Amino acid sequence: MATTVGVIGGGQLARMMIPPAVELGVTIKVLEETPGMSAELAATGVGDYRDLETVVAFAKTVDVITFDHEHVPQHVLRALVDAGVPVHPGPDALLYAQDKLLMRQKITELGLPSPDWAAIENADELGAFLDAHGGRAVVKTARGGYDGKGVRIVDDRNGADDWFTALAEDGRGGALIVEELVDFVRELAQQVARRPSGQIVAYPVVETVQKGGICAEVIAPAPNAGSAIAQAARDIAVRVAEGVGVTGMLAVELFETRDGRVLVNELAMRPHNSGHWTIDGAVTSQFEQHLRAVLDLPLGETRPREAWTVMINILGGPAGASLQSRYAEAFAAHPAAKLHGYGKESRPGRKVGHVTVAGSELDSVLADARAAAALFD
Predict the structure, then answer these.
(1) 256 appears as a binding residue in the annotation
(2) 344 neighbors 352 (Cβ within 8 angstroms)
(3) Where along the chain is ATP bound (predicted)?
(4) Residue 266 marked ligand-binding
(5) Of 108, 103, 72, 109, nearest in space to 88 by CA
(6) What is the pTM assigned to this prediction?
(7) β partners of residue 180
């Protein structure tokens, strides 16, 4: 069995892989982009993940490569595979997390439900889509968008002219994606893990609450999600994992519509914000599960430890102070709350940590989690 896992990217997801790696007796090494990132505790190198020589040199020090993010270029990923380095997830799967246009094409090919969409290259094509969809739609850049970036609602054919111009100036061409503005009841997320030998396990579907395009709250399991919704979400994620050959954690972000449908919104092929609740709320956390999967070990139980778990992101943090300055007050007032700090400096809108509370009554769990997180504003 491989004993050293290399993680490309030094963010909080890599940081949260460190404790389960220690518990599993696995050595974890991190290639961080700049010194002092969240995963500094396990960082063994600093370098550009876009530079082939840097990444290959890092890969020579580990047994398997995985990721904190999906942004490593395809030519780098494929060079690693060609050199015989185990890469999980591999480039053929990551392609669909890196490019939303390819993702939409693949989801359609797999016959999975998604919003009506089109690839567009100019204002006329955007205008035609708007005319056919009630005058409003969502436009997305194919690459680089996350946490609300690269996404906008438009109601005018010229509403994405700056993005069309940027594509033209880039020299590589390409298209934007336009999607119908879905009338959804709420957003859900379904996580599964898949190991290279094919075993798949699924976590309960959760409800996610977004603020300004950033995940603010997660409720696990999703309240009032009947068996039909839960089964539909699980089936979609399993079909995606098998259809693109994901190895490791996969998160499928979903819309639940007013007429009872479940539609695919986005994909993430790594541990995901919607799964942070599992650290304290599930038998096997998503971070341990990801390590098990990329090492091709039998996957762990996904069952919740309590009836309800609520995760609240700390966005921005206390102005001019560290999270630690609020520990005493928060812990005294909310002894059931679990805090996870990311070792980041406070900045408006930045994810600097999260709070989790688990228990038997949803209303009290939700109130306790929100109150505890509010003390770190």
Answers:
(1) no
(2) yes
(3) 100, 140, 179-182, 187, 265-266
(4) yes
(5) 72
(6) 0.95
(7) 137
Please state, rounded to an integer, the average pLDDT across all residues of the chain: 95
Q: Tell me whether residue 100 is annotated as binding.
A: yes
Do residues 312 and 347 share a domain?
yes
Report residue 40's pLDDT band, with 50, 70 and 90 as the boundaries.
very high
d(CA 16, CA 19): 6
| 72 known member of a binding site | no
DSSP state of 288: H
| pLDDT at 149 (0 to 100) | 74
CB 180 within 8 A of CB 225: no
Q: Is 137 helix (H, G, I), strand (E, B) or coil?
A: strand
pLDDT at 146: 61
Question: Does 265 appear as a known binding residue?
Answer: yes
pLDDT at 154 over 70: yes
Q: Rounded to an integer, what distance in angstroms lies between the CA atom of residue 148 and that of residue 275?
A: 18
One domain for residues 176 and 205: no
Token digits for 10? 């030094």
Q: Does residue 250 share a domain with residue 337?
A: yes
- Structure-block tokens of residue 190: 């379904």
* 169 is an annotated ligand-binding site residue: no
Cβ neighbour number for residue 197 with a 10 Å cutoff: 10
Total number of domains constituting the chain: 3
Residues 6+ apart with CB under 8 A from 150: 140, 141, 143, 144
